[in-house]
Amino acid sequence: MSMGLTIMVTGALVAASCGFLGCFLILRRMAMLGDAISHAVLPGIVIAFLISGSRDSLPMLLGAAAFGLLCTFFIQSLRSQGVQSDAAISVTFTALFAIGVILVSLYTRQVDLDLDCVLYGEIAYVPWDTLSLFGHNIGPKAIWGVGTAFLLSLLIVGLFFKEFKIVSFDPQMAAALGIPVLLIHYLLMGLVSVTTVASFESVGAILVVAMLTVPSATAYLLTDRLETMLAISVGAGILSSLFGYWLALVFDASIAGSMTVAAGTFFLLAFLFSPLHGVVTRWLIRRRLRTATAVDHR
Amino acid sequence: MKRIHSPVSIRDLSVAYHRKPVLRDIQFDAPEGKLIGIVGPNGAGKSTLIKAMMNLLPLTSGDVKIYGKPYKEQRDLVGYVPQRESVDWDFPTSALDVVLMGRYGKLGWFRRPKAADREFAMDCLDKVGMADFAKRQISQLSGGQQQRVFLARSLAQDARIYFMDEPFVGVDAATEKAIIRLLNELKAQEKTVLVVHHDLQTVREYFDWLLMLNMRQIAFGPTSWVFTADHLQKTYGGRLTVLPELPDPVAVTR
Fold this sequence. Notes:
The structure holds two protein chains of two kinds.
Chain A: H1 3-27, H2 33-40, H3 42-52, H4 57-80, H5 85-107, H6 115-119, E1 130-133, E2 136-140, H7 141-159, H8 161-169, H9 171-176, H10 181-203, H11 205-222, H12 226-251, H13 255-273, H14 279-297
Antiparallel strand pairs in A: 1-2
Chain B: E1 8-17, E2 20-30, E3 35-39, H1 46-53, E4 61-66, H2 71-74, E5 78-81, H3 95-100, H4 104-107, H5 115-127, H6 143-156, E6 161-165, H7 173-188, E7 192-196, H8 203-206, E8 209-214, E9 216-222, H9 223-226, H10 229-236, E10 240-243, E11 250-253
Parallel strand pairs in B: 3-7, 3-8, 5-6, 6-7
Antiparallel strand pairs in B: 1-2, 1-4, 8-9, 10-11
Helix pairs in contact in B: 5-6, 6-7
């Protein structure tokens, strides 16, 4: 695979898997959860590093995923005790991130663990970080990691689609029907954790947070059906990463930054011109109605 | 000897939030095939009682039986209409889709709603006069229409007992009539319906039986027996004005 193609495929996979799960986060008003998880995993990464003593990805991925889940568990516990949702999210992730910062400052004097390189990957380096199996180079690690996370999300949400839907819309009714609301909640949180961790290690935190929220917010403006919203969100994410890569080439700018800008541009277009909820569309309709009434009164 | 179980049988039920008691000493056997109103002032614990009966919150003490068994074993027999404000109506889904959710309990894991479920859901929408709005996104419906969609969803549960939390709040006259017609149809099919209700003016007209509630159980019985000035005074305290010029005292809440 050529370098450019590898970067585009990685970006598209990150965008697709984040866009897919992001829909459920937006609908449950937990859009900032990706941001929270991407910070809260820091102590997990440091602890994994201290235990394994190496900078291998797998132990770090497991440590990060464990703390991602722990973060969502703390948030849920605080919420169920009556703490506001946004307060619960920010209290939890800042506390966990701070613990991570302390751990880094305590232990990295002896060892080489650079915050930037562990936490905030750079998508431009993806093609060089390859995985080998039985001595064969099987391609970029990021594609395997994010691809697996995406397939896992598709599989689990596909199997439990009606449960995910009713738990997002009406958790009380779901509980009354005997659907294990908390289990479905943690299934979603687990998928978000794994996807976030698999993605940001290779492409950087900003791109992950952006792809978890922006394409799904765009899709929300363009449709009134959950199934369509999921499809549009995945599509908008993929388009953003392709268009963003092209922007980055043209302006010789940061790739992740350009992909995020592209996603933001699509959102702005939907916000203004969506046939259902667009600001300009609604204004045009109002103006047409006003003209029609004015003519009637003449 | 075969014992006939009451649809809903409650013994010594108490519920507390953070050590503060919300409901105490609730005890009744609901008769089958009746429309039962639950009335009481704000904060009397009416919604809490409904949720407690369906295991949606932990009981401090006591015991709830649905046809003689715990709720967990009898879910299929109970239909639920939650308060309309309890969900986000901007959710991207259609009226028919919401009604289909009533079928999820019967479907079980891994199974998708089939054509037969869709037809059933359409019939339920039709029964509340909403068949023409099946494809409509739910935020585009009026408050009364949204309430009817919730009623249709409970019908889709195809239950024997229905718990309805304030179905009459904020609905138009047409919806109120539609709900009353529906309640009477359910009664004609020997179903038992418990309805949290606010408007004391209509209590006598709508409900056969009444549970009067203000954190404790004030009265339970046929409306004509228990809907008295004395019980109303105990339920609502000073917040109640009795209009004495009518032959029967009719109460108005503030």
